[in-house]
Design goal:
alpha+beta; binds 7,8-dihydro-7,7-dimethyl-6-hydroxypterin; globular; 6-stranded antiparallel β-sheet; Alpha-Beta Plaits; single chain; 8 strands
Length: 161
């Protein structure tokens, strides 16, 4: 059994409903158990051009799926929620990223874990910290230090509806 952390983001078509539907879908994955998810955060879009604000959060999943089977399953959920892969960095109805897969780093043409940009992104680190305050990253650094370094600019906690 491996504990995986999944980054969740949406900025199209009712983002809060998209991320909540993603949680339902994650809870139904085979050979897996959804342990918890973070609160939802609003965040200013990072990346080129003007985009609507995002809703972001992180889910914790215990899974027996391999990292690549998990990636396939996450992409199937994205597609079932209407994701069209158009431009890199573009707006999206649902983005599911494998942030961490246990303590195993991996890198191939489809998948790089830990997610290469997570350490720069408050919208990843703060929800992850809310979920796993004592987490140590595969490089031995402490999540709480990484999250403090990244700060909270452009990020706000959404009210629990
Ligand atoms: N910006 C924010 N705030 N949240 C995201 O989930 C997100 N995802 C992306 C890009 C376009 C980089 N910007 C983002 O893929």
């Amino acid at each position: 059994m491996t504990t995986a952390y999944i980054g969740i983001g949406s900025n199209l078509d009712q983002p809060l409903q998209q991320v909540q539907a993603a949680i339902t879908a994650l809870s139904q994955l085979p050979q897996s158990r959804l342990v918890a998810h973070s609160p939802w955060y609003g965040s200013t879009a990072i990346g080129p051009g003007q985009q609507a604000d995002y809703v972001n959060g992180v889910a914790e999943l215990d899974t027996r799926l391999s990292a690549h089977d998990l990636l396939d399953a996450l992409q199937a959920i994205e597609q079932s929620q209407g994701r069209v892969r158009s431009e890199r960095w573009g707006a999206r109805t649902l983005d599911l990223d494998i942030l961490l897969y246990g303590q195993q780093p991996m890198a191939d043409t489809r998948l790089v874990v830990p997610h290469p940009r997570m350490l720069e992104r408050p919208f990843v680190l703060q929800p992850l910290l809310a979920l796993a305050p004592a987490l140590v990253l595969p490089d031995g650094s402490y999540l709480r230090d990484r999250a403090a370094a990244a700060g909270t600019e452009g990020l706000w906690l959404l009210e629990h509806a």
